[in-house]
Amino acid sequence: MTAVPTFEELLAEGAGVPVEGWDFSWFEGRASEQRPSWGYAQLMVERMARATAALDIQTGGGEVLAQVTRPPKVLAATESWPPNVELASRRLQALGATVAAVADDADLPFPDASFDLVVSRHPVITRWDEIARVLMPGGTYFSQQVGTGSVHELTEALMGPQPVGQARSTERAVAQARSAGLEVVDLRHERLRTEFNDVAAVVHFLRKVIWIVPGFTVERYRDELAALHRRIQAEGPFVAYATRFLIEAHKPR
Question: Which GO terms describe its biological process (predicted)?
Answer without folding.
Answer: methylation
